[in-house]
Amino acid sequence: MNNQTALITGASSGIGFELARCFARDDYRVVLVARHLNELEEARRLLHQEFSTVDIVLLPTDLSHPDAAGQLYAETERRRLQIDALVNDAGFGETGYFTDTDLETELRMIQVNAASLVHLTKLYLQDMVARNEGRILQLGSVASFSPSPCQAVYAATKAFVLSFAEAVQHELKQQKSAVTMTILCPPPTDTNFFRTAHAENTRAAQHPASAREVAQEGYDALMEGAARSLPTLGAKVNFFSSLLLPDSMLATLMNTQLHATSK
Question: Record's PROSITE patterns (predicted)?
Answer without folding.
Answer: ADH_SHORT
